[in-house]
Amino acid sequence: MKISEIIAKQGKSLSFEFFPPKTPIGEDRLLERINKLEAFSPSFVSFTQHAGRNTLEKTKHIVRKVHDVANLTVMPHITCADPRRVELQQVIDYYKESGIENILALRGDPEEYEPGIFDGETHFRYATDLVKFVATYNTFCIGVAVYPEGHMESANLAIDTAYTKKKIDEGAEFGITQMFFENYYYYEMVDRFEQAGIKVPIIAGIMPIIDFAKVERFSEISGVELPIPLITKFEEAQPDDVLQMGIELASEQCLDLWENGVRYFHFYTLNRGDAVTEILNNLASTFS
Ligand code: FAD
Questions:
Q1: Among 96, 141, 146, 246, which is least packed, fewest CB within 10 Å?
Q2: 128 CB under 6 A from ligand 1?
């Protein structure tokens, strides 16, 4: 089912993001975790496709597998970095033939920028170009990335909003946010979007801190602010306490969002179902 239809029907949405496992054993473990998370009736699950790291085939494989074996709506991520433009059609055709109805269209963040990448010739340059291309199929509900603090390459928030609007105008039907740890960034972004005439649902991307070093690295790469008290708290924590602290923090974040009217939640699971399960158990009475 299309995510736009699910959201319109349910008035809320809950989703989980995974990355494609590298090995068959990893795949079995992931399928078990997904199976457990099905108890929360997710609106959809999504699979990343790491630009420039040749994960495209792995993403295609796991998307098809989960679509075939689980009773779930599955959304692949696609980036401008990989595949090249000439191969893009085959990839989209593959998803169409597999019965996939949703795509998250991204520019991608390759670790190394090979010559020609994002030149607009061999590769599309911006996510907008990819949205425009996928929209020509008239088959998929398209989602895009949005940034509560602005994308780190955007000169300012007004420019960031203008390019986001362009992605929506080209056919995107919902946005999923980058992780954020201060909810006011989300509220301010939604206000900016409303003023700019962006009317699509904006799903809050929640990153439970279960590995602080990893989140610090993501924050450096993406320019996402980690509030000083949060850094201090996690730096001073005993290693055994981190998981529980991360669960509590994400539960409080979601509760505040819910109390402020947010009904769309996307969890970056980092392929670990345990933390998300506990967070959702903490929120069961609120979210039901
Ligand atoms: P764009 O929308 O193209 O924006 C990139 C920059 O270009 C922005 O600064 C924007 O303001 C600017 N811009 C846009 N259009 C124009 C224009 N016409 N002229 C000038 N400037 C312009 N990365 C991966 O590699 N794989 C994944 O699976 C993945 N999944 C993600 C999932 C979510 C929910 C999110 C939030 C991000 C994800 N990313 C992923 C990261 C993403 O690829 C990066 O944040 C990337 O740097 C930007 O992608 P984008 O789609 O937002 O790009």
A1: 96
A2: yes
> What is the number of structural domains in the chain?
1
Find the catalytic residue in 17, 149, 173, 278.
17
User: In which domain, by residue range, is 230 found?
Assistant: 3-287
Peptide bond into 83 cis (omega under 30): yes
Cα(128) to ligand 1 centroid in Å equals 9
Smallest CA separation from ligand 1 atom 42, residue: 108
Q: Are 276 and 16 in contact (CB under 8 A)?
A: yes
The CA distance from 246 to 216, in Å, is 13
Asked whether the whole model's pTM tops 0.90, one would answer yes
Nearest atom of ligand 1 to the alpha carbon of 126: 3
Ligand 1 geometric centre to CA of 127 (Å):
6
Fill in the DSSP letter of residue 70: S
Question: Could you give the 3-state DSSP secondary structure of residue 91?
Answer: helix
163 in contact with ligand 1, CB cutoff 6 A: yes
Q: pLDDT tens digit string along 208-263?
A: 999 999 999 999 999 999 999 999 999 999 999 999 999 999 999 999 999 999 99
Does residue 17 have an active-site annotation? yes
What is the rounded CA–CA span in Å between residue 131 and residue 172? 7
Q: Is 176 in the pocket of ligand 1 (CB under 6 A)?
A: yes
Positive or negative: CA dihedral 274, 279, 285, 288: negative
Domain harbouring 90, CATH code? 3.20.20.220
DSSP assigned state of 19 = -
Q: Which residue has the tokens 């206000």?
A: 191
SS3 17: strand
Average pLDDT over residues 179-207: 98
Are the C-beta atoms of 108 and 82 separated by less than 8 Å? yes
- DSSP code string of 108-129: ---SS--TTTTSSSSS-SSHHH
How far CA 280 is from CA of 7, 16, 45, in Å, comes to 19, 12, 15
- Structural contact between residues 45 and 74, judged by C-beta atoms closer than 8 angstroms: yes
